[in-house]
Amino acid sequence: MEGLYFNVNSGYVEGIVRGYKNSLLTGQNYSNLTQCETIDDVKLQLGPSYGDFLASLPPNPSTSALAGRMTDKLVSEFRYLVAQSTGSTAKFLKYLTYGYMIDNIALLITGTLHERDTRELLERCHPLGWFETLPVLCVATNIEELYNSVLIETPLAPYFKGSLNHQDLDELNIEIVRNTLYKNYLEDFYKFVNTDSDFNGPTQEVMSEILQFEADRRSINITLNSFGTELSKQERRKLYPEFGKLYPEGSLMLSRAEDVEGVALAVSAVAEYKTFFDAVGLSQGGGSMGGIGGSDGKSLEDLFYQKEMEMGKLVFTRQFTPAVVYAWMKLKEQEIRNVTWISECIAQNQKERIGNFISVF
Amino acid sequence: MSGAVGREPVFPTRQSLGLMKSKLKGAETGHSLLKRKSEALTKRFREITRRIDEAKQKMGRVMQIAAFSLAEVSYAVGGDIGYQVQESAKQARFRVRAKHENVSGVFLPQFESYTKDGINDFALTGLGKGGQQIQRCRETYARAVETLVELASLQTAFLILDEVIKVVNRRVNAIEHVIIPRTENTIKYINSELDELDREEFYRLKKVSNKKQRDNAAADAEILAARQKKKEAELQAQKSTPAQEATGATDATEAAEATEEAAEPEEPEPVDVLGEQEDNDVIF
Asked: Does Cytoplasm count among this protein's keywords (chain A) (predicted)?
């Protein structure tokens, strides 16, 4: 019954996204891309899916320009979806942009902290994280002003409220601020998909799974990356989202972990993470800390991406849910990363690692 | 050669001859010293050139790896971290110390790199994802910068040595082709002038002695004539005083002896000078 009225409001959006999904690059496309000799060849190969957006690029564009144009396409498609959506689907799409907003705000806070002219930072902001009051952030010249009068007006205000005050913004490392915000965002998003009555059924199921995975991934990554830094265990614990398969026992163990073995032990309760750790051989404590040097050239990060992509792919087996938009966005982002990686390999003549991308179709 | 080089404007005296000879000796010593310095520098220069070649090739490889690790970072992070890194870096972790090295009197600056391990300003960048790649990338770039520093110190040494070698070689050539020939020319000139003077002097002395001989002969003749006259006078007036005759004769012989003595001490000197001239002639 849950799908009965879905198509009244959101059927078009879902249909469009499924169309978009078909233009994602397939394994065949990727193997063509890896055969390319120059960036121009890459551009040519991307023609069918990215045609108009790449047309204005000069011959032999830089990889960042190429990635920029591909992101432009993603952004314009997403904006179209936003424009077409209503009700809780629109709200869902808004939630998708909050992650980018956090990045943008972190960027602007960094700029304000170092008393830079934040106006020129606006260009560096991710277009998906753009919101109307973002330029207003540039008005603030000090961090207190920024916090008291400007951040309150942004959609992210609830995430600041309660966990960060303006002194924190000044004193804490911007990465901690960013991760605190992200944690709050993930928790909020999780609550949203689980409580909104429109999302009973498939959306709740798939999004919960994806968000739980995302939360666990962040916890594990934060733990791994914080080894050898001044981030204390208490602070670290505050950055773990309070849901997910690892929560609460795994999170607690993660917060106490002091090395990679500790992390492996903490995640061993969850079978799939355990297989990841087994796959990379736990030897990360040695020379290549989590680097690309595991058993089959995959790092933990690669395995997480792979898993995320597979989950994204599975979402398309469900119907009557805006979760496909989320999945499509993640797949598209991964695609941009893949193409950037491939063109980077081609540009730098490092063909031996060119196969190190993730393709699920 | 001698015409092009010319000689120094000195008076051809014995003193300046000595001066020139010591100058020539000095120039020869200086020449050999500078030549040795130049050789030492050139040896060093070649070594540096070889090391620059090595360092440049190494730099190529290292920079490639570094650029690739940055690509890895952008893949893992999925975005641009440049701004965050720029803003969070406050203290230099990688530092360079400058030292001096003395290579045969030339001070070559040497840069020495070292890292301050305590400083890690952007350790938290990429905390959510890609942090490890970022740290790895940082290490790769630190190695790349190390190579660059090494190359920079070699290049500076290269430039300075190049300049110094040019200067030294210029000096060597100047001494070899200008100063030494000119000094030699001057010595030759002074010697020839001195010879000329000596010859003149000899000739003059000869003339003087000739004249003296002539004068002596004339005086002798006169004396003889006077004696003759006296004898005649004696003969004419044999009865006049015989004592007067004796004194006049002794006077005349004494005078002749005196002139001979006066001429004699002067004679060995021209002979001496002649001997020296002959020696000089053998030299040049």
From this structure: no
